[in-house]
Give the backbone structure.
Amino acid sequence: MNEKLHDFDWENGDDAFPDHTRPLVEDGRTEARIVMVQWAAQALLVGEPMALSAEIFQSQTKRRKADKKVWALLAEELPPHEQRYASLVQAHFRENWPWERTDVVLRGLLMAAAAELTANPSLGTGAVVNEYMNIAKGFLSAEDVAFCRATLEKLVTAIRP
């Protein structure tokens, strides 16, 4: 995920994307969160409910060796309540910043984080924010990462006052 493009041996078949049977990261909990962010982002991108692609992402989670507990927690919370989480996240955007203008990965990440903050009260807020910030740093621009941190801190206050 953090390798540079010039480190690949394109002539011998190297690819910028990991083999689909290998995990993206070593930690299965982080892997489950990444797959959930991907699922939410894809649904936002194509404009369809997350439930329509549930089978695809359940099989991807198994293939990616994602932590089953974290995956189940997120899969039970976010897809059936995605509109609620989208509204919750959007409520913490500036008034002049349209939802549709925001990167779909950033929106999906914030929705997944809000769902985990709600569904996993035993995990400290600092740990949740740290997990999703690490994911953000791997997929988003520095500007979007800063926006993500500010929005996550607002979500923490709203969800766990």
